[in-house]
Specification:
With 351 residues, the protein is an alpha/beta fold. 37% of the residues lie in helices and 17% in strands. The chain contains twelve helices and twelve strands. The protein has helices spanning 25-36, 54-57, 62-65, 76-83, 104-125, 160-165, 169-187, 211-221, 237-249, 266-276, 301-305, 314-327, and strands at 16-20, 40-45, 66-70, 88-91, 130-134, 191-197, 199-201, 227-229, 231-236, 255-259, 262-265, 285-289. The strands form three sheets. The chain has a seven-stranded parallel beta sheet with strand order 3-2-1-4-5-6-10, sandwiched between helices. Strands 7-9-11 form a three-stranded mixed beta sheet. Strands 8-12 form a two-stranded parallel ribbon. Helix 5 links the parallel strand 4 and strand 5 (130-134).
Length: 351
Amino acid sequence: MAEGAGSVPGSRHRQNVCVTGAGGYIASWLVKLLLSRGYAVHATVRDPSDPKNAHLGRLEGASENLRLFKADVLDQDSLAAAVAGCQGVFHAACPVPTDKVLDPEAEVLAPAVQGTLNILQACSANNVQKVVVISSTAAVHFNPNWPRDRPKDENCWSDISFCEKNEDWYMVAKVIAEKTALEYADKTALNIVTVCPTMALGPLLRPVVNVSHEFLIYITKGGPTVMKNIPWHIVDVRDVADALLLLYEKEGSIGRYICAPHHISAKDLVNLLKKARPNYNYVNCDNDLDPNSIVTPLMSEKLKNLGWKPKKKLEETFLDSVEYYEKARLLQDIEGRPCRLPHLFHMAIEK
């Protein structure tokens, strides 16, 4: 086996890695990529028998190199069993709420923060060599004190007080969890890098639509509330998987990385989709860009300088997503299920 294809740098032995929350959207694509590169994958899921995880077993190479582990991020013993014998771990497990969070501690803070600490402690106890923690640009964007004319880079963190005031508990959880990981790296010998992908879109491997796709479905079907014309940062899920593996395999990777190659305004996004797929209603958007949007340009130069080269153009990502919706009949109106925007994106419609 060639070096870099499931092998420890400098050796030719197959490498075992663990992916937490492997049934998730990004994690599923990561598992697919790892299997294609010859890695043996320990995949944690809450319930291996759940039909929503069945797609993992159908991935090429799964029969030989994929093992599913029933695990919960709040159960250290189950995590320890999953990472045992692994040289690397990709920590992707984290709840992403669709609705307004009513119990922040139980719904997002404990799973995100304590869950991250639990997996890192399991990694230390099992001599894992490297951990890639998947954070989010939710931990970057929401900083009202960052200069508006300066693109946000890895030094920018979402302001916890600002997010708490707006009851954006997912953002709070992602900030605290990511900082917990980086502080753990400083205090221990564990090699940890964090990556902050922006909104990931593209085709799905699993039969469950995640929050990012609910956002695009709302836009395509023409949700009832007019959206503000604010910028949206987008990355193709396949490019995210490439970035995660690059960060794992590159010995020089260190600290925090933003993964956000594209941005487009809401109005331009609608116009792009209308041109390619004119037969949908589409949401109405304000014509003028919102000058007060908390979402401002991001930089991914640190990741690109490491060698990341995103392959997918923005239009391809959007159209691949819509093509999946069409095949899965997700753009049809269903009685009793109104089209609504996930609460995570409330800043897009609140005036």
